[in-house]
Design goal:
The complex is a heterodimer of chains A (254) and B (269). Chain A is an all-alpha fold. In chain A, 60% of the residues lie in helices and 2% in strands. Chain A contains eight helices and two strands. Chain A has a two-stranded antiparallel ribbon. In chain A, a hairpin with a 5-residue loop joins strand 1 and strand 2. In chain A, helix 5 packs across helix 6, helix 5 packs across helix 7 and helix 7 packs antiparallel against helix 8. The longest helix of chain A has 41 residues. Chain A starts with a helix and ends with a helix. Chain B folds into two domains: 49 residues, no CATH class; 195 residues, Cytochrome Bc1 Complex, Chain C, CATH 1.20.810. In chain B, helix 6 packs antiparallel against helix 8. The longest helix of chain B is centred in the C-terminal third of the chain and has 33 residues. Chain B is elongated and about 100 Å long. The two termini of chain B are 55 Å apart. The relative contact order of chain B is 0.08. The chains are: A mainly alpha (254), B mainly alpha (269). At the A-B interface, helix 3, helix 4, helix 5, helix 6 and helix 7 of A face helix 2, helix 3, helix 6, helix 7 and helix 8 of B.
């Protein structure tokens, strides 16, 4: 392997034979290519075998891509463990600080003054209180098409239906909110609507008329949407300006 | 024309061309024989990968490749909301299984309206008598709250980063189904203690069902076991909460994550 004059040389590295790698140190592949005998043959065969696989892969319609990412161990694993234990710890801490409430047993004969579901169903409960805006159609002689109660139930269907339709309406490759002001505005309107519907559900809490609360329930989301749209449009100007600046710095106009 | 392979991968012809010694021939024949059956070459690639791992020759991550490091790191916590809701789901599952040892879904024992029922008494004993029972119920309740919150925020993140677009519509719709089932999980869950809130929340549910034309009465029978709340309602809620929904939701979560796995995470560019 090594040439004979190597052994006669005075060694300055302590005789371990370990030298720091530099550009001239052959890497593993090169070492493989230079080797002889059976290992060389193995290498050659594996190269053929690999090329065979490669050809077969290219013939098939299976799409192969490079996987880009951090390795599972230790990066992903340690990070996930840290996040998980932190999160579970917070759950336990909050559970210890705020023990669950407990009420009187169910009594069909006494309706409590306040009936409210858990907070995450407030919006749904607010939808059930929309009966004041259930339209009375003149065509039907002031009759309502839907009963007041079913109006609220049907509203749930409308909400879930709209949500399910979103990806089929909003196409294109835009990803950031600045790139799609309209849809971001729609999203903000949805978020604000869920909050105002929650406010409608706990209406007794607010010291003003129900009519005003109903008006606010539907005007606030629209106001928020308009504001969002304006802000994002303005931001987009700056964003495009930035992109253009970078573009023209690379390719200055003649 | 013969059926013999004459292409590049005719290893026998290659062996003949090489003009090898008997030792080499024997070695290569064995190697080829084994490799044909066990694909040793794949394991060699594994070794190679390990070699590069040890030498810290990492492939670039998405953020590195597109130089997004300085722009997006502060959004990354929002990208963990999906897994946080799964973690909360698991915590709720474990604590819920333990709570299930002590809970009894029964309205028995109430002589008059407003008397404690067996379900209410069992929850009370969990909170007062069982070792760590109060803690257990607290953890279960808060895990549920955290899960719902995480699921809602996860939906917002997906919406505002446009992650539901083109190839991922199915997963978005699946996510909406999962949100609905999560809310149903919460609803059936807080009916179980059979205290005042449970009863009147159930009442609202029955009224919603009965308000629906055509299928309403049938749905009320199916889900609530009748038009007035009682033992049948409680047992149905119990079965929904501890049997039906866990299976369905777990399967759908697996499908949801599986689709993310196949399609990759949609990061903003």
């Amino acid at each position: 392997m090594t040439e004979s004059d190597d052994t006669t040389e005075i060694r300055t590295d302590g005789g371990t034979g370990i030298v720091p790698p530099d550009d001239e140190t052959p890497d593993w592949t090169e070492r493989k290519e230079r080797s002889r005998g059976l290992s060389r043959l193995t290498y050659e065969y594996f190269e053929r075998s690999r090329r065979e696989d490669q050809d077969l892969r290219q013939e098939s319609d299976y799409v192969e891509r490079d996987v880009l990412g951090f390795p599972t161990w230790p990066h992903e694993t340690i990070r996930n463990l840290a996040i998980t234990s932190f999160f579970v710890g917070i759950i336990i801490l909050v559970a210890a600080a705020l023990p669950p409430e407990f009420m009187d047993p169910a009594n069909p004969n006494s309706t409590p003054a306040i009936i409210l579901p858990d907070w995450y169903l407030y919006w749904s409960f607010g939808l059930l209180k929309l009966n004041p805006i259930n339209p009375e159609l003149a065509v039907l002689g002031g009759e309502k098409v839907l009963s007041d109660q079913f109006y609220g139930v049907a509203a749930h269907g409308v909400i879930f239906g709209i949500l399910a339709l979103v990806p089929f309406l909003n196409k294109g490759s835009a990803r950031r909110p600045v790139e799609q002001p309209f849809w971001s505005a729609v999203g903000v309107a949805g978020v604000v609507l869920s909050f105002t519907l929650a406010a409608l559900a706990i209406q007794n809490f607010f010291p003003f008329e129900l009519k005003l609360l109903l008006t606010l329930t539907f005007t606030l989301p629209i106001v928020a949407a308009i504001l969002t749209y304006a802000v994002l449009k303005t931001m987009r100007e700056g964003y495009m300006y930035d992109l253009n600046k970078r573009y023209y710095r690379l390719r200055p106009p003649k | 024309m013969s059926l013999e392979k004459k292409d590049d991968f005719d290893h026998d012809a290659w062996l003949k061309r090489k003009d090898l010694t008997p030792v080499e021939t024997a070695f290569l024949t064995t190697l080829i024989w084994l490799d044909k059956r066990l694909r040793i070459v794949d394991y060699l690639e594994l070794l190679e990968t390990m070699y590069y791992r040890v030498n810290l020759q990492m492939p670039k991550s998405h953020t590195e490749q597109y130089d997004l490091d300085n722009k997006f790191w502060y959004w990354y916590p929002l990208y963990s909301l999906g897994s946080l809701s799964i973690i909360a789901y698991l915590v709720a599952a474990v604590s819920g299984a333990l709570l299930g040892f002590y809970y009894s879904p029964s309205t028995a024992g109430a002589a008059a309206a407003g008397d404690p029922t067996a379900a209410w008494i069992s929850v009370e004993s969990i909170m007062k008598d069982v070792q760590f029972g109060l803690m257990l119920r607290g953890v279960h309740r808060w895990a549920a709250q955290f899960m719902v919150a995480a699921v809602f925020l996860h939906m917002l993140r997906v919406y505002f980063t446009g992650a539901y677009k083109e190839p991922r519509e199915v997963n978005w719709v699946l996510g909406i189904v999962l949100i609905g089932l999560t809310l149903l999980f919460g609803y059936t869950g807080y009916l179980l203690p059979w205290y005042q809130l449970s009863f009147w929340a159930g009442q609202i549910g029955v009224e919603m069902a009965l308000a629906t034309p055509l299928v309403g009465e049938w749905a009320a029978q199916l889900v609530f076991g009748g038009f007035t709340l009682g033992q049948a309602t409680l047992v149905r809620m119990y079965i929904l909460h501890v049997f039906l929904l866990p299976f369905v939701v777990t399967a759908l979560i697996a499908l949801h994550v599986g689709i993310v796995w196949v399609q990759g995470i949609a990061e903003p560019h």
